[in-house]
Amino acid sequence: MAVHARRLCHIAFHVPAGQPLTQDLQRLFGFQPLAVREAEGWRQLALRSGDAVFLVNEGAGPREPLYGLDPRHAVPSATNLCFDVADAGAAARALVARGCSVPVPPVSVKDTQGTATYAVVSSPAGNLSLTLLERAGFRGPFLPGFQPMASAASPGWVSHVDHLTLACTPGSSPTLMRWFYDCLDFRHLPLSPGEDPEMGLEVTAGSGRGGLKLTALQTPPGSAVPTLVLAETLPGDSSGQDQVEQFLARHRGPGLQHVGLYTPNIVEASEGVAVAGGRLLAPPEAYYQQPGKERQILAAGHEPSVLARQGILLDGDEGKFLLQVFTKSLFPEDTFFLELIQRQGATGFGQGNIRALWQSVQEQAARDREA
Question: What is the CATH number of domain 263-350?
Answer without folding.
Answer: 3.10.180.10
